[in-house]
Amino acid sequence: MAHTVTISQEALRAQREICQQIQSYWQSRRQEPLAWVDTYGCQQNENDSERIRGLLAQCGYGMTDRSEDADVIVINTCAVREHANQRVFGNIGALVHGYRRHPGQIICLCGCMAGQPEVVERLKKSFPHVRVVFTSHEIWRFPELLRQALLTGKRVFATEPSDGNVAEGLPVVRGSGLKAWLSVMYGCNNFCSYCIVPYVRGRERSRRPEAILDEARELIAQGYRDITLLGQNVNSYGKDLDCGVDFADLLAQLASLEGEFILRFMTSHPKDASKKLFDTMAAYPKIARVIHLPFQAGNDRVLRVMNRRYTAAQYLQLVDYARSVMPDIVLTSDVIVGFPGETDDEFEDTLRLIERVRFDALFTFIYSPRAGTPAANMPDPVPREQKQRNFDRLVAAQNRISDERHAAYVGQTLRCLIDGVDEQDPSLLTARTDGNRLVRLPGDAALVGSFRPVTITASGTWSLSGRLAD
Predict the structure, then answer these.
(1) What is the CA radius of gyration of the chain?
(2) pLDDT score of 170
């Protein structure tokens, strides 16, 4: 297991001083610079972008959502699927037109794609207008990289391989005043054969529990009501620390804090999920009774080749125990269809599993090869059309199940967090149940930010309708 490297406070102070230097640079030119941060991928990327915005704010940048107005553009990327990569390359290519009109503009690419050597080489050769490239491990020294590009006009690459680090105390500009991401650990040690994450985000490294608790207290004091704990595999939390605190212990400590809030977490790996975790969820009302527990495939041979390290029977045992202590738990999962060599008979095992579990929702994908992973070199004789047919069957089955499970909510009164005004219909509010089901309901916008009892009046495949309870 890799040793966790904690960035020293002295090194972080040096970065803050650089932020002041960048502020002075713009003040001397009597300019108010703007920045645009565009994010692809998972919640961890969203959380990273909040820290990038925080560092930019310390450097004196205001935020804009128009690339043509920005003095600095940061594209925070995802490398999990090929489609995401191609979208990023397409969008970066389009930025060249704004760059030609604004040659002082600094375009940065960071995140998981920056950890792929073939991507870095392509950026060097084909995208000269991208001036700064850095991995997620280097976010803490973004001010240093930005200053270098700003003052020298040269391209800057901080993409050396790394097992990663932990940098505490970075500034944050959050995207919401109600919901907050709270990272508890970074990286992954699992090396699922299809997944690029361990190669681009490094090995597992946990934050100290006291640092997490301090950040949670600050969020609660600032009025955040919905806090999601993040990690590539939160169930591995604490294995690299010496404090004897595992993820269930951390959850219990957080759920014991004062204040009105709800705790969620993602993502959980089934091989590390435990009865202790489910017992802890059942014991504390502030822990949402919802878990995202990816099973990926229902066939044991496919699971072995995926290097998932559990069987379908073991997965079902976990689900059965969770429901035995929390009959109302909401279960969601990820599924990959068409993994190299998966036969139609093996896919039928996946269909049988979702019919047995009856998930509330699934995130479904057709297998996408990632260069640098073992699965990318596996024989894959099954034609795309066959994979698409199986995928369509899976989606249809899950939509039916989701529809049926949502219909069971009608008539129930549930505690919900009123979290906003419906973008599609501003006469309605939006809310989330403890199980993270979306509810649309009439009501006054002054209710946003409060927990209220809501009676469910109608249901659909992807959302519920309701009214405030009497």
Answers:
(1) 23
(2) 96
Of 419, 422, 423, 421, nearest to 436 (Cα)?
Answer: 419
Which of 389, 406, 423 finishes a domain? 406
**H-helix or E-strand containing 148?**
helix 142-152
Instruction: Name which of 196, 201, 113 is nearest 373 in CA terms.
Output: 196
Structure tokens at 225: 């009501």
Q: CA 235 to CA 215: how far, in whole Å?
A: 20
Task: Flag whether 360 is in a domain.
Answer: yes
For tokens 């503009």, name the residue: 105
Say whether the peptide bond before residue 267 is cis (omega within 30 degrees of 0).
yes
DSSP 166: B
Q: Are residues 117 and 220 in the same domain?
A: no
Question: Alpha-carbon distance 81 to 67, whole Å?
Answer: 25
For residues 271 and 71, give the distance between their C-alpha atoms in angstroms, rounded to a whole number. Answer: 46
Cut 0.70: pTM above it: yes
Is the same domain home to 293 and 254? yes
Give, as one character, the DSSP assignment of residue 255: H
200/187 Cα distance (integer angstroms):
8
Q: Give domain status of residue 166, yes or no.
A: no
Strands 130-134 and 106-111: parallel
- List pLDDT tens digits, range 246-278: 999 999 999 999 999 999 999 999 999 999 999
Contact in structure between 50 and 173 (CB atoms under 8 Å): yes
| Closest to 462 measured CA to CA, from 417, 426, 427, 424 | 424
Question: Measuring CA to CA, which residue among 219, 312, 223, 228 is closest to residue 270?
Answer: 312
Query: How confident is the model over 335-385, as pLDDT tens digits?
Result: 999 999 999 999 999 999 999 999 999 999 999 999 899 999 999 999 999
Q: pLDDT grade, residue 291 (50/70/90)?
A: very high
Let me know whether 130 and 187 are in one domain.
Answer: no
Long-range contacts of 245-251 (CB under 8 A, 24+ apart): 245/209, 246/276, 247/184, 247/277, 248/274, 248/276, 248/277, 248/279, 248/280, 249/209, 250/184, 250/209, 250/212, 251/277, 251/280, 251/281, 251/284, 251/287
